[in-house]
Amino acid sequence: MIAAHSVQLTKQLIPGTYIFDGRMAMKGYNLNRMCYSFNSAENRKKFKAFPEAYCHSFNLTREQIHAVTDLDVLRMLQLGGNIYYLAKLTGIYGMTVQDLGAQQTGLSLDEFRAMLASQA
Amino acid sequence: MARIIGALTSSHIPSIGNAISNGKQGDAYWKPFFDGYKPVLRWLEQEQPDVAVVLYNDHGLNFFLNNLPTFAVGAAPEYITKDEGWGLPVFPPYKGYPEMSWHVIESLIEQDFDIAMCQEMAMDHAFINPMRLFWPDENPPKIKTIPVAINTVQFPLPKPSRCYALGKAIGNAVASWPTDEKVVVIGTGGMSHQLDGERAGFINKKFDEMCMEALLNDPESLTKFSSLELVREAGAQGAEIIMWLAARGALQGKVSRIHSSYHIPISNTAAGVLALANN
Fold this sequence. Notes:
The structure holds two protein chains of two kinds. Helix content of chain A is about 60%, strand content about 0%.
């Protein structure tokens, strides 16, 4: 039995995997709150027009704002983002979960797809 | 006395919704996936269940991190669908069954499951896509629904053993509902997949095949995993298999396999469907 508590205080217990525990939830609350707002088409439009201003209105940290405007998924995860919410942000730019997978693994989209298919 | 006639478990991958809407069931990419549902559809056609208890996980549509229940039971006359943020269509509401929902809620509390109770609840792809897969000709279908949301967003997740016990308690609740309605229990999510982190794209066919077998013959063996062990074996979002385990828990009779199908990949996910009869 392995416990989630303090997982990220040291190193990843499961390599390449971010466990969204209480510590991450505290860190990422505003980032996730912003992404949750993207359930509304009007908010998606507002964000797209002025991304930084929209981030500021949710009190994101400077680091989080950079990660958001760079669409840097790993960085957003490290800063407390939860993938279910982040998908609403990346969806605004038409990124699919395969695009996210390619970005995070450093593969091209075709390479990432081939990697998925190779596990069949 | 209402009777649970079986459990249906299915992946709920968002892109399934668009494939259905765009009529892509016959395309080379999608055909093996959709063909895997045909025997289940024949069984449903023959059995005509009246009620579906749907165990699913909300992905940040109805619940946010400000108020996040571990287990939540719907008690609404209907369940609306809403914009999830990335282009899935919004549909007319699904039919609820509030009288039976309250019976289930009361029974669960009696059995020491202190669930949240929801008289309004918006459904996301985790509910909608399996409903569209199992009732492809009607949207929404005539069947009455009782959604049960299980938290898979925020750790700590409920333990697999607890999810299995919740399913058992739901089975007891249904058995004490005083009509002769036929109930099907649906568990959605999985199978192995991971969307986030450097390990994104992780799939574990061996583990999924073991789960399919264990759900039929030895579900108790799956209750020995911790949530983190499920993440390790099935991927970060593969932990959604807890909904399958909960659905299996509701079957208290002699369980037999109607059909199972497994296909890699749909989107980033190992897609699976398993139909079990309860006699």
